[in-house]
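Batch job 17 of 40 flagged for manual review because the log was empty.
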Amino acid sequence: MMATTGVNKLTRYVRFIRLMLHILSGVLQSFILPYVSISRQNQMTCNWAQKFLRIIRVQLSVDGGLPACGPQGVILVANHISWLDILVILAAYPVRFVAKAEISTWPLLGRLCRNAETLFIEREKRSDTLRINQQIDSVLKSGHSIVIFPEGTTGNGDVLQHFHASLLQSAVTTKALLCPVAIHYSNCCDDSRNASVAYVNVTILQSLMQILAEPKIRAELIFCEPVPSADRNRRELARLAEKAIARTLSLNVVHTAAEIPSDLPAERM
């Protein structure tokens, strides 16, 4: 769905140029991330994401208690509407994320994600889930937090897709704190749901231009009550996180067929 707002082409082009320069600056900054402390990495990442949102006129509000950063990272579990979700989260909370492998091929953004040590998963390969879970374990133990989008795909935001449990095995093995996070985009003029943000049936460039055509977008990030992982399996965690986000956003959940144990990596005690 293309945006139908009155933002003129000149404004869009100016925003686009500013954004490309900002992404380029992010790529350059990302080369030094491995050589600074975790706290400095977090500060640089949050500052960069906040400026990204300002350039594209996304107004961010954050509700709920942010989980405290400790010696072991936490797992954020969020609904998934757009590629913009990760920028919204990064602007509020320092985190690494799991993304589909094709993002690594995107111009500039792909390089930025690779330098920021994003974990790329090939969703078509079931065997890749075990590898990613092992990498998530290492990320958490190193003190970094990570965000997972268990729907496995983006949606238009009017329903919540079934949460897949496969990438939550790391929460079980590390006993990490699981924090459900609800994301919502609305129009600033009337608080109605903004449909231009949804990354569905469009290319990344088309999606970006739709967002740049909006005069202003309100993004709401709601941190729900954390879910302790101890004494729970990954399917229980998936359903609890799913329920928390659906309740927060007043959304119905579209469930698919039940997950088959053989499709998932084995539980590790």
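Reviewer: the log was empty due to a logging misconfiguration, but the result itself is present. The CA atoms of residues 137 and 170 lie 6 Å apart. Unflagging and moving on to job 18.
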